[in-house]
Amino acid sequence: MSSAISAPASQRFPLAAMMVLATIAFTAITTELLPSGLLPQISSGLNVSEPVAGYLAAAYAAVIVVTVVPAARLLGRVPKHTLLVALVLTFALSNAMVGLAPTFEAALGARLIGGLAHGLLWTTMAPFIARVVPADKVGKALAIVFSGNSVGLAIGAPVGTVLGSLLGWRASFLFLAGFGLLLTGLALWLLPPVRLADEARPSLRQAISQPGVKSVAIAWPLLILAHFALFTYIAPFIRDAGLPDYAISVSLTVLGVSGLLGVWIAGLTVDTRPRRSLIITTAAIAVSMLLLPFVGGSLAGALALMAVWGGGLGAIGIYNQSAILRAGRENKDAANGLTVLTIQLGITIGALYGSASLVVAGPMLVPVAAALPVVAALVITVAGRKNAYPPGPREVVWKTPRPVREKVEERA
Fold first, then answer.
1. Does the predicted TM-score (pTM) go above 0.85?
2. Planar angle of CA 320, 324, 328, nearest 5 degrees
3. How far apart (Å, rounded) are the C-alpha atoms in residues 194 and 85?
4. Is the domain 204-397 a CATH 1.20.1250.20 member?
């Protein structure tokens, strides 16, 4: 292929396929987060303590960290269409097994299967998009697909929790399993095939050697680390800030809804002004976190800052996903798998970092502690102009001499 993230220029935009992928992303995020909202019911139903029931969430993330790179390498020659369909079916089976599990051990085993599918999904999805979408529309496609993440966070997990509260936790998982079976059929029908000749065996070593890959694989997880450091302990902060208890649920909704807005904005800018947009977004996240301790009990002020934080979080996923595909070049599959691994590490370390900040500095300073890795990511982004985060077409055009700019505009 002529470009690291290109598909044939004459190819039509596969909107239906991107909507299916967005729904798959929604299902994956809902599957990952669902146990967290149903811990009391799961604990009671499986006769284990709530901390033990929490292992259903922790084990899910842990298996991603351990298996994502070797599994992606092992299945590198499997056609992406076939693999995606198989992964959606695996999600359905995993959720069905959890819903029917007679013991905690059986439920844990089923979650491990789901975690394996989750890691493989995110190593497969972005390279698949790059192969079936025209090169100048990859950012738009990523924005559509990543909107599924925000919808899962804002709607999927809360609705699943409500359903579990009304009908029992098993009903939530079984409903998600049935939805997964339906989605498997849609994926088989609507996802376009990718020629096996286009599939190369992922090489992590070659991916890491590509200029820019290491920068993206560090900066992106730093942003995720910061998010989970604050997100995990948002309740203690809200209470210590003198805000009402209902602000906890409201803030989660604001984060999810503003994340959708951030995804939409990123979709409009990632193909034209990715560098400038990412720098502005990262700086906005840092500022919003730094200002949170100074809201002075103002719910409106806190929610406004959280909206900036949530919108930025939705956007940075699009910008960084595009950046890693570009930086990985011919080894974009392995480069993408590397970021899946480092992001899961960021999630895990973020919760631990937030806990340490809570103990050492207190709830009011957790946002300040979270802002520090954001600032570090901003420095890496600014420094990565050449390879990791180069300017986009619109950013380059307006810095060229007028005659050259006019020729570029004529060609466009």
1. no
2. 170
3. 13
4. yes
